[in-house]
């Protein structure tokens, strides 16, 4: 049987082969359905999108798979997911510009960037809600340092690859920043970064 990705060793954990294959099949259908809808014609094309509408660049970024011994290599699958996310994001960007026009599309994303900056420029130590004293959260100093990099990117155009934001990791710490809130803001940052690419 042919495999889409290399397998990890039998004794090592990889992603569930069945889950990865199902997700890729669903993503392929979604991408093709969106292409059909963009190309043409009437209500029928719109209806084709409905069944796969849940898959977009953001949902791809948050996708996770169960682990199994001898499963697909996580490194190869993660790299493929990044490429898939980029493909969906490029199409979403093209659709947004077509529907709104370039100027309105950039205005919309400039407004989103301003909302994000309002959060990122808060006083260090107070940029996000804190987890409980006995609950795990993200190390506040590490998150604040990364927020400073994001502010430099938005304010001054400092170089910051979108892959760095996607892959940002912080040390767990009791009483740190609420992980869900930080993750949501980083997701919003990625959305803006990919939306305004040339």
From TrEMBL:
Annotated InterPro entries: CHP03543, DivIVA_domain
Superkingdom: Bacteria
NCBIfam families (alphabetical): DivI1A_domain, divI1A_rptt_fam
Provenance organism: Subtercola boreus
Protein name as it appears in the record: MFS transporter permease
């Amino acid at each position: 049987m042919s495999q889409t990705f290399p397998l990890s060793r039998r004794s090592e954990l990889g992603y569930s082969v069945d889950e990865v294959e199902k997700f890729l099949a669903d993503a392929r259908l979604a991408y093709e359905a969106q292409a059909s809808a963009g190309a043409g014609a009437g209500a029928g094309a719109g209806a084709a999108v409905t069944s796969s509408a849940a898959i977009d660049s953001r949902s791809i970024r948050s996708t996770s798979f169960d682990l199994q011994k001898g499963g697909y290599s996580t490194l190869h699958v993660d790299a493929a997911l990044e490429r898939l996310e980029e493909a969906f994001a490029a199409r979403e960007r093209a659709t947004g510009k077509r529907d709104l026009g370039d100027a309105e599309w950039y205005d919309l994303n400039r407004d989103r960037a301003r909302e994000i900056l309002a959060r990122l420029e808060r006083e260090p130590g107070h940029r996000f809600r804190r987890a409980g004293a006995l609950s795990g959260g993200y190390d506040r100093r590490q998150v604040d340092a990364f927020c400073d990099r994001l502010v430099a990117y938005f304010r001054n155009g400092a170089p910051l690859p979108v892959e760095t934001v996607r892959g940002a990791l912080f040390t767990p710490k009791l009483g740190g920043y609420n992980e869900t809130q930080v993750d949501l803001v980083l997701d919003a940052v990625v959305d803006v970064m990919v939306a305004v690419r040339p």
